[in-house]
Design goal:
Largest interface: C-D, 72 and 71 residues
CATH superfamily of chain A: MetI-like
Oligomer: heteropentamer
Helix content of chain A: over 70%
Family (chains C, D): Belongs to the ABC transporter superfamily.
CATH topology of chain A: MetI-like fold
Chains: A mainly alpha, B alpha/beta, C alpha+beta
Shape of chain A: globular
Keywords (chains C, D): ATP-binding, Cell inner membrane, Cell membrane, Membrane, Molybdenum, Nucleotide-binding, Translocase, Transport
Bound molecules: adenosine-5'-triphosphate, magnesium ion
Structural class of chain B: alpha/beta
Order of helices and strands of chain A: HHHHHHHHHH
Strand order of the largest sheet of chain B: 2-1-3-10-4-11
InterPro entries (chains C, D): AAA+_ATPase, ABC_transporter-like_ATP-bd, ABC_transporter-like_CS, Mo/tungstate-bd_C_term_dom, ModC_ABC_ATP-bd, Molybdenum_import_ModC, Mop_domain, P-loop_NTPase
Structural class of chain A: mainly alpha
GO molecular function, one term (chains C, D): molybdate ion transmembrane transporter activity
Strand content of chain B: 15-25%
Pfam families (chains C, D): ABC_tran, TOBE
Number of helices of chain B: 11
Largest sheet of chain A: none
CATH class of chain A: Mainly Alpha
Shape of chain B: elongated
Number of helices of chain A: 10
């Protein structure tokens, strides 16, 4: 059905989408919490910064990543020198690109869920002796779960579809950074690549529906758990 | 917006030229000259040749298609979208090897050129996507004919456009790049260290054709202007090989 | 000692200003009409709202002091707060709700046992249920249990029993009394029901439109004229400080000695010699000019009419002196005329029923006042 | 006529099964302990939960009939539902909350006036406020007003007064009574307070663990032995059907004639000749062997002891026959011995206070039973 | 500061982002409602379909739009023949592309907000005589407003950053379809275009921050209005 090369792209896409979501989720929860609950000078700026990857063309986002996290980038050089972390041309870099692009979506979904959490319940938890942090993990976070799930789903979906930032930042290195969208992109630029593009598009669709189905199941279970069903 | 929905190709609209993105600067200059001379404006749409070809196929009302390689022109011809009889190929390009200006060392590319020594331990070579972006396709062809493809392939990073490949070399992220000479000419901080032998790859050509149904005197005049002497001057200025 | 002296203005025009100091153990009732500011006071003690200025200290520990910039975080105050709306955690089972605060209390300090609370509140069959499947009363019972199990050093209860039926109330009240007595847990209790207040409270703070009308020991506050607009007319009465003088197990009765004589009441669970408090509602006191013979009324006390106040409507308030004590009675104006009641007249007070409160007598000592 | 005959099982094991038919006007109280299923019944009538099987009809209009597949949508039922939790719309001001249902009612059918409701509930100063700034009692008052203004054809009230203070309750109850009488609005009323029930209700449905214990006219149900476990001991009493016989404006008293003689009570707002209902609590009836002279007690009635039931604890229940009527009295066992009370003995009943309910008498006719 | 050409791109971007959001919002609300509240066979499919534009590379989305809505597209040909609506090369087409790409984000944000609405309040409204539709407009919708706002913001942001679908569907025509991202793309193909690209990137950033600021203000007002502040 798929060529080995295409299977590689599919596997890589899944890997990138999973890790991008996995790593960005905790940070997204933290950011959402800060944006929804904390108030400090410069919050508006942080807010803007978070949504920036959404509003900028993805190619520009990729270019900015290149400037900062490339081997010669002003952060990237230290990542390499100090930790031996190389992002450019690597799967790790593709993961970073996907994470950055999906970050605003994740944060937004989680933030909405957070704002819907009844603060009266948080207050009640504190009167029962729970510290703010404890309240967050024992009350706020469980009540936010549907939102976090929704955020994760968006993150995975957009990571699966991410193209512009990835190709600009880490280019197309076979087996390293060549995700499904890159493969599709290539296919659409070859005069007779339509069949391949279609096959890969179908794979994307199946992946998307699959993850939605899974998310739906998990969601229903969570809702039953937190008594919102 | 009612306004947004009603905008379209009215009869009096200027003709639209579909041009490969690499022609952006040259065509913009030529378009200005054309308007100065004839008083008639021209509209351009710059995108990847593939995207433009697909748009033509979907019925985009363009007048002229200027492709960055023959394959997509053959494609539109084959679909009976553009007129083979009007085909002209006024310009070409050459494929060059570039390096960051600060690390540049002139080399000569031939069958015996040691790519691995040139690239160093883990150096990368940037070019367009080798199966879709024209520059990348030519690079692959050239390396293959030089017998170096298999050794170099793992080091190749394919960018979404020649410009992106250029950026990787400019930034020093890649040790070298394979791009068109025109691209190298407009980039800062990179230096051409070698030109690929002309025979190592199919000629880089920019075929122009008139879109089916648009073959009228006005379009002909425009096509003539795009291949005329004023245009040739502009092409030269941007480093194209004028035929 | 619980010292509260706070000012707080809310958007909408409401302003709270109250200052009182009540004993650090026993029950203090916050009493007042809807919108008087009772919940606001409780919230300030819990740390849920921050007063504009003032000071809150419980048993010597300062929770809040605007002058010294102290504002102890909610969780460090350990006030077991039973909210007016139950606020159960929807994602946790009833049992996990109950355990929530317990887990967060220090294990060495757990006088309140899980099984005891579950048993008392009758929530055993609900333990595995989710809050959204509970009835209103069930929810409130779980909320009470959750607050108790957090092993609080102070219990804040905002109308905790309003959603409960009389029978359930009657079961829970003695438990709260026992808790109060055994663990010396101070309780701040908001209620609309003067019966509940009188049964439970040692100290009463009455609020009216954000102002403190009165504060002090229940007996003292209840007799203040300022309380008249706060209490309904039918709830007027007299509190008598008594000593258990005799038990009569055959009839399940006890005798209480007070400054005006002796009262026969349903048996109280206190030893002879212990102090108890009895409440006699004015409407439960009838007056006779001659000693009625052969009546079922057990308590017949000789009295002197001190004051007759005719009111609008059919009623009159009669103040009686019984020995050293004073006793209020409510009769119809028609009876005043028929019996020719007037100050100085010697009569018999017929007390049909007596509510006795077996509170630990040491809590009845008057607290020191502080602030406003 | 309100006919309800439903079965409904809930996840956690609770099953409701009840069937009763009550008059289509007047107040029907749903009485029972926490978790008995009162809210569930109300919800089924409102259409908020769907019974597994059965039939619900109000004044001939079928709301639900599982056999015929009828299930009228909630909004078409027009049941003014006052929820146990107020459920005010957080995005609307108090005034808009109040107007919500009013706007959606037909303009020609608006017996309930906005100003009257605002005035009655004392929520004038709150009209521009947002619900989240209201106190618990204020919220409940607004919820009551909102339901009334929806001009319902049936009012469902789930413990609407639990969060209100006595004074406020005392103000709202007569208004509900007036509404009931003037607009002939049937009311289904859930309450834990037997006082409230007796004051308001014509018909009583008692639930216990989802089963219907009794249903029928209040007077009839209250005397059923099945009610004993449902009612607390102190709430036992007698309901007397009376006719206003005389007014005595000088003393603000009225006289009521009943089968056993005449009662003097605080003035009632009914014309002479009209029927009213009087409730005498057993604990308010004392017994004398000889006629006490010169006592403030206005109601002294000759009676015959019919039955003496000694109970555990200090008390005994005495059933008296007064003329054609029966009257319950509660005295101490000690008094029973002292007065040697035994069936057949001729005594005097001393009634210290009487609660009179000025209900529209035509509602007291017994409803036809239907279903279970 | 900006050249006239750049101003044109900025104005066009704003126009496209605004109208894309304006037209897609009602449909997004409807879709969110259906996904959150209704249950019918094939709901999973609809769910998947909604998220598809997110999971697919934007170039593919654009290509699919071209296939369906282009002048020869199987819907597009009728749009033109029957209504005279031409999408290809036109601002209207760019608007459609932006709307399609941002649709999943909008739906997701609105759906989360919808799920947070207390259904007890909806029930209460119905007992007061409001029909389902009436309840939706008088209770549900106002309570969802913060979510809708958040969805609109995401839509505007992603419309401002949309590149792949637009250039593939409606090409890159100045004044018609050349939005800021396309202008940045073009700028990178022009010598000395870097300065222009940077300028336009800055404009994007300013626009993003501006719309966030605006959204924040509106959001606070709404929250105060619905008593969640
Ligand atoms: N959604 C539900 N799922 C499962 N069980 C439920 C649900 N709602 C209520 N119950 C159970 O049904 C029983 C009756 O509940 P209901 O709310 O009718 O009681 P109630 O008589 O109104 O009690 P209260 O006076 O405490 O409000 C209770 O035992 C309750 O736990
Ligand atoms: N967040 C708020 N913003 C503005 N006013 C408020 C707020 N919370 C409460 N109020 C007002 O403060 C006053 C006191 O409220 P509080 O809740 O303390 O009353 P309460 O005595 O507990 O009444 P209830 O018995 O009805 O619960 C009320 O008039 C109320 O409207
Ligand atoms: Mg309160
Ligand atoms: Mg209930």
């Amino acid at each position: 059905m798929l060529t080995p090369e295409e299977w590689t792209a599919v596997a890589l896409s899944l890997k990138v989408a999973f890790w991008a979501t996995f790593w960005s989720l905790p940070l997204a929860v933290l950011t959402a919490w800060v944006l929804a609950r904390a108030s400090f000078p410069g919050k508006g700026l942080l807010d803007g910064l978070v949504y920036l990857p959404l509003v900028l063309p993805k190619v520009v986002v990729g270019y900015l990543l290149l400037l900062t996290l490339g081997a010669r980038g002003f952060i990237g050089q230290y990542l390499d020198a100090w930790f031996g972390i190389k992002l450019i041309f690597t799967t790790a870099g593709a993961t970073v690109a996907a994470a950055v692009v999906s970050f605003p979506l994740t944060v937004n979904a989680i933030r909405l869920a957070l704002e819907a959490v009844d603060r009266g319940l948080e207050t009640a938890a504190r009167t029962l002796g729970a510290s703010r942090l404890d309240v967050f993990f024992s009350v706020t976070l469980p009540l936010m779960l549907p939102g976090i799930l929704s955020g994760a789903l968006l993150a995975i979906a957009s990571a699966l579809g991410e193209f512009g930032a990835t190709i600009t930042f880490v280019s197309n290195v076979e087996g390293q950074t060549r995700t499904i969208p890159l493969a599709i992109y290539s296919a659409t630029h070859v005069p007779d690549g339509d069949a391949m593009a279609l096959r890969l598009t179908l794979v994307s669709v199946v992946l998307a529906l699959g993850s939605l189905l899974l998310a739906g199941l998990v969601d229903r279970r969570i809702r039953r758990m937190i008594g919102r069903a | 917006a009612p306004g947004a929905l009603s905008a379209g190709e009215a009869p009096g609209d200027p003709p639209t030229v579909f041009a490969a993105a690499s022609l952006t600067n040259a065509f913009q200059d030529i378009g200005k000259l054309y308007q100065q001379k004839t008083g008639r404006p021209v509209r351009f749409s710059f995108a990847a040749s593939s995207a433009l070809a697909k748009q033509l196929e979907a019925g985009a009302p363009a007048a002229i298609f200027a492709s960055a390689d023959n394959r997509w022109m053959d494609y539109t011809e084959g679909k009976d979208l553009t007129l083979k009889v009007t085909r002209v190929t006024p310009i070409g390009n050459s494929l060059v090897l570039i390096m960051p200006a600060d690390a540049a060392k002139d080399v000569t590319i031939d069958a015996s050129f040691n790519w691995l020594a040139f690239l160093g331990a883990d150096g990368r070579i940037a070019t367009g996507l080798t199966d879709s972006v024209p520059a990348g396709i030519y690079a692959k062809a050239a390396l293959t004919s030089l017998g170096a493809w298999d050794t170099v392939k793992p080091r190749i990073v394919g960018a979404e456009s020649v410009r992106a490949a250029l950026a990787l070399v400019e930034r020093g992220e890649a040790v070298a790049g394979i791009v068109y000479s025109t691209d190298a000419a407009i980039a800062r901080n990179v230096k051409v260290v070698a030109t690929f032998p002309a025979g190592s790859h199919p000629p880089v050509e920019y075929p122009f054709e008139i879109v089916k149904g648009q073959d009228n005197p006005a379009t002909r005049a425009l096509l003539d202007f795009l291949t005329g002497p004023e245009a040739r001057e502009v092409y030269t200025k941007y480093g194209f090989a004028v035929k | 000692m619980i010292e509260i002296d706070i000012r707080l203005a809310r958007a909408g025009g409401f302003a709270l200003e109250c200052g009182f100091a009540v004993p650090g153990s026993g029950v203090t009732a916050l009493f007042g009409r809807s919108g008087a500011g009772k919940t606001t006071v409780i919230q300030a003690v819990a740390g849920v709202v921050r007063p504009d200025a003032g000071r809150i200290a419980v048993k010597g520990e300062v929770f809040f002091d605007s002058a010294r910039g102290i504002d102890v975080p909610i969780e460090a105050r350990r006030t077991g707060y039973v909210f007016q709306d139950a606020r159960l955690f929807p994602h946790l089972s009833v049992e996990s709700n109950l355990r929530y605060g317990e887990r967060r209390s220090r294990a060495v300090e757990r006088p309140v046992r899980f099984e005891a609370v579950v048993e008392l509140l009758g929530i055993g069959p609900l333990l595995t249920r989710r809050p959204h499947t509970l009835s209103g009363g069930e929810r409130q019972r779980v909320a009470i249990g959750r607050a108790l199990l957090a092993q609080p050093r102070l219990l804040l209860m905002d109308e905790p029993l309003a959603a409960l039926d009389e029978a359930r109330k009657a079961e829970i009240l003695p438990y709260l009394e026992r808790l109060r007595d055994e663990t010396r847990l101070p309780i701040l209790y908001v209620s609309h029901s003067i019966d509940e207040v009188l049964r439970l409270a040692d100290t009463l703070v009455a609020l009216r439109e954000g102002r403190q009308v009165a504060a002090g020991p229940v007996a003292q506050v209840m007799s203040q004229p300022a309380m008249l607009p706060v209490l309904g007319r039918f709830d007027l009465g007299t509190l008598l400080e008594c000593v258990v003088s005799r038990h009569d197990p055959a009839y399940a009765l006890s005798s209480l000695a007070f400054a005006g004589g002796e009262l026969r009441v349903p048996q109280v669970a206190r030893a002879v010699g212990e102090k108890v408090r009895a409440r006699v509602r004015a409407r439960d006191v009838a007056i006779a000019r001659t000693r009625p013979e052969d009546v079922s009324v057990s308590n017949l006390l000789p009295a002197v009419v001190e004051e007759v106040r005719l009111r609008e409507g059919p009623y009159a308030d009669i103040m009686l002196r019984v020995g050293e004590a004073r006793l209020a009675s409510m009769v119809t104006r028609e009876s005043v005329e028929r019996l020719a009641l007037s100050p100085g007249l010697v009569v018999w007070a017929m007390i049909k029923s007596v509510a006795v409160d077996s509170r630990n007598p040491e809590f009845t000592e008057p607290p020191q006042r502080h602030g406003a």
